[in-house]
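Per-residue structure
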Amino acid sequence: MNKIQLLDDTLINKISAGEVVERPSSIVKELLENSIDAGSKNITIEIMEGGIPYIKITDDGCGMNEIDAVLAFGRHATSKIKTINDLYNIETLGFRGEALASISAVSKVLLKTKEDNSLYGTQINIEGGKIISKTRCGCQKGCMIEVKDVFYNTPARRKFLKRPSTEAMYITDIVSKIALSRPEISFKYIKDKKFEFITTGNNSIEDVILRLFGRDLYSSLLSSKYDSEYLKMNIFLCKPSYTKSNRNMQILFVNGRFVKNKVYNAAIDEAYKTLIPINRYPIVITYIDIDSRQIDVNVHPSKMEVKFSNDKDIFDAIYKTIKDGLSKTNLIPNVKYEKKFTFDNMDKEEKIEQTQINTLPNGQNRNNIFITNDQNIFKSNAVKMQDNATQNNIASEKINNEKVYETNTITYIKDFNTLPDNKQLDYKIVGVLFSTYIIVEKDDMAYVIDQHAAHERILYERFMSNYNKVQGKQTTMPILINIEPGDEEILNDNRDILNRLGYKFENFGNNSIILREVPIILGQPESRQLFIDIIDRLRDKDFVNDIRLKEENIIMMACKKAVKAMDKLSNEEMNSLFNDLNITKNPYTCPHGRPVIVSIKKCEIDKMFKRIM
């Protein structure tokens, strides 16, 4: 008996469908891409119970005639490519000719379609990949496709689907991303007979973002552009104060297609480095237009991955564009008094707008608009501040050794990058809260500054700018450090880096070394511990990049040297701290991404005490 068997067409189609149709959201994605490629201006998506029993996509695209409607359900039937060269110059979203064949192989499909100026349309019923009926019908120009009972004939696959609510979440995510990719198309998304969202199709990306994700994200939105000979980029990003716990909002569109790419994520991480806390992720929505010959979109059957022919150029462009966007914006979080606006209090126009955007992609209703606090600093009406006049006798050994903190009587400070460089305004140090937060008053604005985070940022940028110039000083007595087996080789391999950081050492035998010089900006005890920390870092196999090593160690140096919470500073030291913070490139966060400064307007405090409404 032969061991090799030729599979019949029914089984082949089901296997092929498994590559394209993973779950109901895959069906929605494929059908929406077909609608977009058909030139649709209005697309309606309807699902029931996570799309398992029912999906319906209606569009006003070019439609099909009777012959094309039948051919569209054949395997490898497509209008998008004709020759092998077309594979390397793909301009459309769908191109393999697998979508309808795969969908119809595992579900029951009803198609109604009509071309413009045709007298009648075509209706086709297919079950399990076989055409049950084909008739003429009356219908609008475009296509309407109903998909019922997904995986009805492959129960083994159906049982692996999640709960309907989870499958609906996957569909909502796909529809949201496709709506973001095509702001010129109006999308209506109906889930379980309720409107989830509507986009206007007015070609405004900002408008789509507002309708999908709400006012909180929208109010934190920045934009930045990049333009070169073969690459155009439009990036919408959020301030570092608005982050997420995962990468789901790092969205990339390449030539109108939602894709994933590791280079993209790496560039975002590098651009936001030291601006956000660990385990938090910035929101970045990016649109790239590039010569289709410079990318490969046929990496995976789902078309969710893309490869660039020159990853370095893409990385550099994304990094630079994000950095440019952040550098042009005041990133100080603004504390606002929380006030609830009820639907009944809105005027007619506001009610119409709110009705259109009163739902989020995850299905939660947004019946009220909230202005949320970035930091809720003034919860208590009884805030105890330390009078600066009582701090004259306070010791501050942490920073006395640095020339930059000599007594300074300058009483001006620029408005943290919000004013031209040549304009200076008076400021007044009001006091210190909890021996940690310095309160500054200027005009009608109060600033609350974390002294430790501020000093970390100042030292970090100083060390970064002076890297390769850090001076070492000879230790008063040799410092003996015991090391682990193998550390001697690691230290010798990285001797140049350590020398540039201000360390000079020599081997002493018996798994020990002697420090002869330490960075002049650190005391000997701190230098010893820092050197031990550096050895621990160097043992890590993944910690081998020279630039990353430099930055990580400088961050550690800044942390070791910076003034701490509860360290009491004199008025002169606080003045000097402010002036140094003002000349940093990024006065908004410490190297670990925590906020350095938040602001609150006088009117917000007045609202808290009911002086104004």
User: Anything to note?
Assistant: Residues 340-370 form one domain.
